[in-house]
């Protein structure tokens, strides 16, 4: 294929070298003269292990060139790949000027000589959800006209490479995410990725756009979390290395997908109390664990969000069945269950609530468990109903708040899952 790559930075130039090494004809485009000169002189424009060695055979064979001319780069191109920067703007949002500029340049160049078959234009820069549909498509409509899709096929394909191992990450990425206008695969990009061995996810644009933010924020959470534990260990004379070794060895609960699915707030007998106590310890020794300190507040915010979400789906005074009272199905441990808070808030807001939870018989509860339930929800005995009553009810809304709801036939009701955000 002939491929034009816009932006000869870390992402764009690495992709250019990797793609050219596979035998494609690559032409790089940049606004920076010295980068163009470097590429055309066979010199890698920045340091990245293995890049100079990878580029040399391609520049010698004139399979890898650079230009400032957008029309030259796009002439007979099968694909354009956009890798321009999206730095922070003054308000913290991405500064989208380079994306907007390059999109208009591509649209204007293609409008001069409209390609008969659509050129695939792939965006690899990191951009907020909605950019493809609300910024880039309108630019192509403005430059190419209402029939823009006859000349351009747009794809969003986020980049996951890490600098210093960029080449191996290009060929062996953790995953390939392809966002398209309708969530259907793109054949041209599939052909380009033929040598890449990774799981491929094809989605509409927005899910692909958000993925990159979730990933990078998660990496930042992991680093900040590790360092908070590191600070506590250091202050207490405990070996952080040993604690880390034990932590990562647990691939069932710690380094695993467990606890990462969006859904209910955390609760139960252990998480809230131990996070609270860990906060106390960290404060006491002056370790300043801001991330850990934010966990309970974040959890409260989520409970309020869940309450708001339910009230948007049911008018005050309407009949609601809560399917699940414990923090998860299969237990009658109600201590700090977020579902108890939800029922309390709904009752206070004037909803007519009943609760189904087959694991629960109040007369079997003891100690803290009993105390927590009755001090938070003194009306509980009058609220609990069994499965036949739950299925026979005339509910305006059924809130499935833990997996207990699966035991019921709820097909005739409007339902809202709060234990699992779709
Ligand atoms: N660097 C990384 O490790 C990494 C990893 C994944 C994703 N990303 C994302 O990829 C994007 C690019 O990152 P980068 O680190 O390669 O940026 P960079 O700053 O190294 O390179 C961007 C290049 O785009 C060029 N450019 C600007 N406007 C242009 C235009 N109109 N036409 C052609 N070229 C133009 C700039 O001159 C520069 O050379 C960003 O959105 C970034 O968030 C970066």
What key attributes describe this structure?
single chain, about 425 residues, alpha/beta, Rossmann fold, 2 domains, 8-stranded mixed sheet, 4-stranded parallel sheet, 12 strands, binds nicotinamide-adenine-dinucleotide
Q: Under the CATH scheme, which architecture of the largest domain would be assigned? A: 3-Layer(aba) Sandwich
| Widest β-sheet, arrangement of strands | 3-2-1-4-5-6-7-8
**In which range does the helix fraction lie?**
40-55%
Largest sheet: 8 strands, mixed
CATH class of the largest domain: Alpha Beta
What is the number of helices?
A: 17
Low-confidence stretches: none
> Could you tell me the strand content as a percent range?
5-15%
User: Any ligands, ions or cofactors bound here, and which?
Assistant: nicotinamide-adenine-dinucleotide
What is the H/E string? EHEHHEHEHEHEHEHEHHHHHEHEHHHEE
CA gyration radius, whole angstroms: 28 Å
The end-to-end distance, rounded to whole angstroms, is 39 Å
Total domain units: 2
Query: CATH topology of the largest domain, which one?
Result: Rossmann fold
| Overall body shape | elongated
Average pLDDT confidence is 96
Q: Tally the beta strands.
A: 12
Question: What would you note in describing this structure?
Answer:
This protein is α/β, with parallel strands linked by helices and 422 residues long. It has two domains: 2-209, 3-Layer(aba) Sandwich (Rossmann fold); 299-417, 3-Layer(aba) Sandwich (Rossmann fold). Helix content is 44%, strand content 13%. The chain has 17 helices and twelve strands. The protein has helices at 10-21, 33-40, 51-60, 70-74, 97-112, 131-144, 166-171, 187-192, 205-236, 240-249, 271-284, 290-293, 295-313, 338-348, 367-376, 380-383, 387-392; strands at 2-6, 25-29, 64-67, 79-82, 119-123, 152-156, 176-180, 200-204, 319-323, 352-356, 397-400, 415-417. It has an eight-stranded mixed β-sheet with strand order 3-2-1-4-5-6-7-8, with helices on both faces. It has a four-stranded parallel β-sheet with strand order 10-9-11-12. The longest helix has 32 residues, at 205-236. It is elongated. The model has no long low-confidence stretch (mean pLDDT 96). It binds nicotinamide-adenine-dinucleotide. Nicotinamide-adenine-dinucleotide is lined by residues 6-12, 29-32, 35, 83-86, 98, 101-102, 105, 124-126, 159, 161, 163.
């Amino acid at each position: 294929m002939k491929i034009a790559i816009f932006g000869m930075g870390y992402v764009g130039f690495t992709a250019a070298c990797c793609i050219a090494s596979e035998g494609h004809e690559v032409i790089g485009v940049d606004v920076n003269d010295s980068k163009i000169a470097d590429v055309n002189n066979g010199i890698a424009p920045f340091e990245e292990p293995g890049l100079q060695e990878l580029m040399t055979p391609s520049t010698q064979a004139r399979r890898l060139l650079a230009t400032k001319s957008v029309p030259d780069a796009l002439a007979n191109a099968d694909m354009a790949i956009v890798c321009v920067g999206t730095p922070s703007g003054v308000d913290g949002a991405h500064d989208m000027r380079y994306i907007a500029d390059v999109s208009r340049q591509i649209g204007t160049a293609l409008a001069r000589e409209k390609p008969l078959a659509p050129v695939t234009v792939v965006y690899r820069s990191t951009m907020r959800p909605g950019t493809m549909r609300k910024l880039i498509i309108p630019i192509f409509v403005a430059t190419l006209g209402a029939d823009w899709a006859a000349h351009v096929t747009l794809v969003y394909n986020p980049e996951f490479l890490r600098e210093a191992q960029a080449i191996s990450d290009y060929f062996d990425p953790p995953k390939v995410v392809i966002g398209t206008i309708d969530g259907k695969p793109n054949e041209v990009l599939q052909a380009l990725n033929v040598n890449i061995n990774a799981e491929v996810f094809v989605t509409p644009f927005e899910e692909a756009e958000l993925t990159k933010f979730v990933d990078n924020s998660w990496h930042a959470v992991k680093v900040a979390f590790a360092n908070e534990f590191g600070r506590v260990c250091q202050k207490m004379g405990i070996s952080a290395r040993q604690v880390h070794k034990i932590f990562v060895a647990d691939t069932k609960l710690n380094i695993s997908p467990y606890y990462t699915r969006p859904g209910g707030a955390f609760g139960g007998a252990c998480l809230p109390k131990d996070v609270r106590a860990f906060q106390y310890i960290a404060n006491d020794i002056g370790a300043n664990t801001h991330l850990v300190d934010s966990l309970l507040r974040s959890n409260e915010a989520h409970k309020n969000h869940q309450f708001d979400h339910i009230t948007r789906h049911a008018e005050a005074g309407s009949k609601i069945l809560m399917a699940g009272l414990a923090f998860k199905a299969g237990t009658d441990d109600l201590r700090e269950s977020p579902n108890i808070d939800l029922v309390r808030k709904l009752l206070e807001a004037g909803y007519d609530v009943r609760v189904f939870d087959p694991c629960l018989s109040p007369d079997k509860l003891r100690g803290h468990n009993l105390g927590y339930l009755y001090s938070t929800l003194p009306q509980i005995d009058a609220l609990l109903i069994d499965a036949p009553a739950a299925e026979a009810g005339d509910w305006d809304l059924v809130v499935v708040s833990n997996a207990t709801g699966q035991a019921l036939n709820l097909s005739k009701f409007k339902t809202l899952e709060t234990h699992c955000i779709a």
